[in-house]
Amino acid sequence: MSGATLERGLNAFREQMNAPVAAFFSSCVNCGMCAEACLFYTETGDPKYTPINKLEPFRRVWEREYTIFGKIKSMLGLTKPVTDELLAEWEELIYDGCTLCGRCSMVCPVGNDVSYMIRRAREGFVAAGYAPDGIKNASRRAVTIGSPMGVKFPALQAQIKHVEADTGLEIPLDKAGADYMALLSSMEIINFPEYLEALARIFKQAGVSWTISSEAFEATNSGIQIGASDIARELVGRVVDAAEKLKVKYVISPECGHAYTAIRWEGPNLIGRPYNFKVIHILELLDELRASGRIKTEGTDDDRLTFHDPCQIVRKGGVLESPRNLLNMVTSEFVDMKDHREMNWCCGGGGGVSAIERAEELRLKVFKRKTSQLEELKVDKLVTACANCRLVMEEGLEEYKLEIPIVGLTEMIAEYLVEDKE
Amino acid sequence: MSTPTDFLLWVRGPGFDIALVIFLIGVIIRLLEVLVLGRKPDLAEARGTEMGPGLRTVFTRTLPESGSMKRSPFTVVGGYVWHIGFLICLFLFVPHIELINSTLGVKWPGLPSNLVDAVAAVTIVTLLAMLFSRLNHPVKRFLSGPEDYLTWLVTFLPMLTGYLAYHRMIDPYPLVLGLHILSVEVLMVVFPFTKLMHAFTFIFARWYNGAMAGRRGVQS
């Protein structure tokens, strides 16, 4: 991130230009329908948050340099250039005002994948030096300390000791040859250690051979959020090195949305080769264990409850069936929000937004969308499968004075798990 | 070009040829301009396929997602009405079919002229309403620049002049017919250099969207 200049930013935009991006920009007729799919527009009513508008700097590079008429117009001085002022103005729109949730990409009538372009355009913003301090600092901590929240291995070790003491189970560390290597997000280590406990109990019962690497336990990837491929590559590379060193067959992505996008979908493209292992989301693994009868549950949660689909796991991740298969196993009064699965509304804190301090007011404002969804259903409990969504929603519910407890799906499965007594 | 008849002969002859050449070459260049950029192979292990979901999205995006229908009903319904109306007038009006037949040698049955006339009237009114919406809807007004109004105008003029010609509302007839053909030529010339290109590129855009989501196991 050092030596960021406008020229570097423009070069980064150029590197991100490809046929899909050109097809998308060529097709947009400014119909404005993406605005209605975006909670930043629906909750603020400010047209500047229209998804396609967030791409104006990237669009200008495309028009001026990648279209014949744009080149002619530029020679005649009829197009507007990308300037530092423009990027400074747009920084808030493309970072604070977009969670990369991808809902707009589902509604565009000409088929534009707007969030795909925003992810790419952020590369140009970072390279030009226009990224919010919050994500910049998180990225810096991720590279130097190993975690965006500054969580070091001793902190994990302490949590492991707690969980081992509470459960009497061993959490295998650096066990070479294990089938699965589990990753965690810093938030799970610090805020939701019940996730780790759930893993230990479920895997013990199912007889899953697993381990955690002391060298690469952090699953989150600030590089993906800020849009810096070099940082993202470094962070993914650590996980890949650890997994290959321990010779595991699978790496388990935790209940964290963008961690899944990072390790499952972007990772191989960042390091430039396929992995020697497979990546599986924890919900997919639990669903497999359920289907094969390796885990059984007893009893159900009889509260009226609903599930918040984390965007990066469901809409952008393709883990579609597992959450509801698992929920059906342990709930009796499960109801879906009107817009759910691929069309669910974002919590408002994804894509790095929750790391941007100055975006807090906006984030809480757009959380209104989620509260409207919840109020329609009148539920007593909210289940999700992403530590970031969970934290953002806990803050949001508090702000709107709604007393709805939030639980992680993995720990819910552990709660009703039938365990053999030894 | 001293008389309306000379004018008509010019727009039907050399004028049309020039417009057609610019249109065809322009469209080909613009499509190549997109496709030559290519995209890198995706190295992540696929969950689903690309081709099927991509093609599916090409068709399914023709129908609005239910939330959009509720939140932007005017844009959705107005968009349907004028696009379909425009295509009916272009391809199902008997004199147009005869023109295509005489140049390309292919023909198909048309609709009764009075029906096409009614469709044209509805399309013209809808296009005016769409312009009104663009000027007033906060999002559309905010997004719109000169190109959005230019493309509206060059789409609207062939409809308007066609309607005037059909009803012989301007004398002499060769003049109004010539104006109609000229407006179509303007549309053809402007087409490749503006967002009117979406009429072709939407197929690629939808396919890429559907294919990239399909790879991840999602039907977009």
Could you explain the architecture of this structure?
The complex is a heterodimer of chains A (422) and B (220). Chain A is α/β, with parallel strands linked by helices and 422 residues long. In chain A, 50% of the residues lie in helices and 8% in strands. Chain A has 21 helices and eight strands. Chain A has a four-stranded parallel beta sheet with strand order 2-1-3-4. A four-stranded parallel beta sheet of chain A has the order 6-5-7-8, with helices on both faces. In chain A, helix 15 (257-271) links the parallel strand 3 and strand 4. In chain A, helix 12 (194-206) crosses helix 21 (409-415). The mean pLDDT of chain A is 95. Chain B is an all-alpha fold and 220 residues long. Chain B has helices at residues 4-35, 51-60, 66-71, 73-92, 94-104, 113-136, 138-143, 146-166, 173-190, 198-215. In chain B, helix 1 (4-35) packs parallel to helix 9 and helix 2 packs across helix 10. The mean pLDDT of chain B is 96. Classes of the chains: A alpha/beta (422), B mainly alpha (220). At the A-B interface, helix 2, helix 7 and helix 15 of A face helix 1, helix 3, helix 4, helix 7 and helix 10 of B.
In short:
With 422 residues, chain A is α/β, with parallel strands linked by helices.
Layout: helices, strands, pairs:
The complex is a heterodimer of chains A (422) and B (220).
Chain A: H1 6-16, H2 19-27, H3 39-42, H4 56-66, H5 68-75, H6 84-96, H7 104-107, H8 114-127, H9 133-144, H10 153-167, E1 180-182, H11 186-190, H12 194-206, E2 210-211, H13 222-226, H14 229-245, E3 250-253, H15 257-271, E4 278-281, H16 282-291, E5 301-308, H17 322-330, E6 331-334, H18 360-366, H19 368-377, E7 381-384, H20 387-399, E8 406-408, H21 409-415
Parallel strand pairs in A: 1-2, 1-3, 3-4, 5-6, 5-7, 7-8
Helix pairs in contact in A: 1-8, 4-5, 6-8, 10-12, 12-21, 14-15, 16-17
Chain B: H1 4-35, H2 51-60, H3 66-71, H4 73-92, H5 94-104, H6 113-136, H7 138-143, H8 146-166, H9 173-190, H10 198-215
